[in-house]
Amino acid sequence: MANDSLTSVHRALEVLRALGSGPLGVQAVAETLDAEKTQISRTLKVLLEEGFAERDPKSLEYRLGWRLYALAGAAGDSRLRQDAPRALRALVQELGEAAYLTVREGDAALTVLSEQAGRSVQAREWVGRGTPLNCTSSGRALLFGLSDDEVTTLLRMRPGRLPGTRHAPLTIAAVLKRLRQERAAGYVVAAEENEIGLTAVASPVLDFRGAPLAAVNVSVPSYRLTPEVLERIVEAVRATAAALSTGTRP
Fold it and tell me: With left for phi above 0 and alpha for psi between -120 and 50, is residue 34 left, alpha or beta?
């Protein structure tokens, strides 16, 4: 009986892996797994009832269901909360500059975690504060996964002129132009855009769908930056964000 149950569990996992490649009908799943169609049909029925699979009423094909995505999202949030403090500490030890973890809350970037470097001059404490999306490195990094239309809708939530210094993109068109370049690069450098004298570098932490879940950011007094230091910070921030995205320890 126990062996039968394990076999059913293994079959269900194999079916979910098959559906991960895209919508499939019962026959296609059976052929992919080299299994009997009746067994696959029964497995899909259970997955459908439990919300782990969905069925298109027209094509009759199955795809991964909402409950699986919800579990994956919860697992990603939990892992990030566990791994981020260690990752930020390692980043500060490597660079000697303050590091932050930021998430998007509505039309603002909210800092939820920070690690300070102990320098006499460093970026201010930002935890619990919301900052604009258009003129901060973490804010624009958190927009990477959104379409231009979605970004436009978010930025229009703030009435009047977009915030920032003269170095910042102060129109929606300018923000979209910056984002196209920054998405391709995989990181954002905001040089004195939100605060004169402060430069920040950010890269997104991606969830299982490849969408930004959070952003890792390092903020540095601009007078300490040289091209070599900036390059080192960019590499370290990108590596930390990538490690948090994949679940490997930085």
Answer: left
User: Which pLDDT score is estimated for 127?
Assistant: 55
Structure confidence at residue 74 (pLDDT): 53
* Start-to-end Cα distance in the chain: 43
Residue 118 has what pLDDT? 61
Question: Counting Cβ atoms within 10 Å, is residue 180 exposed (0-12), middle (13-18) or buried (19+)?
Answer: exposed
C-alpha to C-alpha distance for 37 and 63, rounded to whole angstroms: 17
Please state whether 207 falls in left (phi above 0), alpha (psi between -120 and 50) or beta: beta
Would you say 7 and 39 are in contact if contact means Cβ atoms under 8 Å apart? no
Question: 122 to each of 7, 57, 132, 224, how far by Cα in Å?
Answer: 57, 58, 20, 10
* Mean pLDDT over each residue of the chain, to the nearest integer: 85
Helix (H) or strand (E) holding 190: strand 188-191
Would you state the pLDDT for residue 122?
47
SS3 (DSSP) at 24: strand
Domains assigned to the chain: 2-64 (1.10.10.10), 73-246 (3.30.450.40)
The dihedral through the CA atoms of 95, 100, 104, 108 has a sign that is: negative
What's the confidence (pLDDT) of residue 77? 60
Q: How far apart are CA 190 and CA 168, in angstroms?
A: 8
By C-alpha distance, which of 103, 138, 127 is closest to 219?
A: 138
Q: Which residues of the chain have pLDDT under 50?
A: 1-2, 76, 120-122, 249
pTM for the whole thing?
Answer: 0.68
